[in-house]
Amino acid sequence: MISIFDLAALLLTLSATFGFLNRRFLRMPHTIGLLVMGLLASLALVLVDLAFPAQHLYQDLTRVLDQVDFTAVVMNGMLAFLLFAGAMSLNLRLLRDRALSVATLSLLGTLISTALVGGAFWAIAKALGSPVSFAWALVFGALISPTDPVAVLATLKNVNVPEALEIEMQGEALFNDGIGIVLFTVLVAFAAGSGGEATSAGGIAALLLHEAGGGLVLGVVTGYLAYRAMRAIDDFPVEVLITLALVTGTYALAQKLGASGPLAVVAAGLLIGERAPRYAMSDNTQKYVSALWTLIDEVLNSVLFLLIGLEVLVLRFQVAGLTLAACAVPIVLVARLVAVSAPVLLFRWGGNLCLGNVPFLTWAGVRGGISVALALSIPESDAKPAILAATYAVVLFTIVVQGSTLSMVARRTLRELPEREAA
Fold first, then answer.
1. String of b and e for 348-359 (b: at least 16 CB within 10 Å)?
2. What pTM did the predictor assign?
3. Which top-rank group of organisms is this from (predicted)?
4. Which of 37, 52, 195, 276 could be joined to 280 by an S-S link, Cβ 3.0–4.6 Å?
């Protein structure tokens, strides 16, 4: 049994080694390079194991990775820190100006995409003879429709887009995962036959209000308390500890109360990022707090994207489900196109949504570790292997292909837009 320290040492050493090799030779964006190198290392181990079965390299690493509960690591560990770091760097005043766009894309876009992906995935699964019911197809739609905030924020670091559009994308990614997780929870209960009142219209509305609304209120309350505590002192070690306590305490309390932990830490991060630097932190404290959360963001992103690449070693795919997985990629892309276009066409009067940005927003719909974590958390069923393979295929395609070509798409689709329109 490998210890937690040994496991952390292995992952950090691999992250540092692959990061160095990527920077020295491949020169891909850091997180994408780590995912690609993790994936290539996984495939290389499989080939070595086939050529030299007596070496047991594949089995040894697989045994180690089997001890990593990917869902727990992402949803109950890394996610809180990564979302807080992303929210702290977001300009709250610009986000308020884009509130209608962000709310529309987060809520209406996620609902439209879930329905379209679920229906198309079920139709193709039925044609291929795959044991995926309509209910489980909708579960896949719910877990794959929200853009992943961690992946989107990591990808945007390498892309030059207008600031207002970037705020819109960051806001959508930070908030739509809360909507997606509520939908996922309801649809899993329905598909597993244990929904009860939770799957009624009133039950869904109550769950959404409790999880999403409760999470936002909790984040504002805890964020304000932390802000007042930081304002009362000028001691950077204590203030750094306050931000760490805010993240862990808020996320843990949200889980105990049944509220959305991701939305709670996003709300807390937005409040701290907006008010603390202006009213509560000295220049010295700002330097240390900013350096800490930049470091946390970079290190956890590196480990997470490496894990996504290595996870192929322990995921149980079925050959029969690979065709359906390949079909899932264009299904999700088309659904993203419709989900982005519909709010633009329906709410042109709002003045914030621009039809010219649709191609870029479609291609920027990157999925990541949250989708994989949700897919792994699905109860065992005949449909799970097909959903898992499809999820992994979409995640790999969006991060590697869409993420690495997003700068080119931005140059081609945004360069002709007037500045007021691009925003």
1. eeeebbbeebbb
2. 0.88
3. Bacteria
4. 276
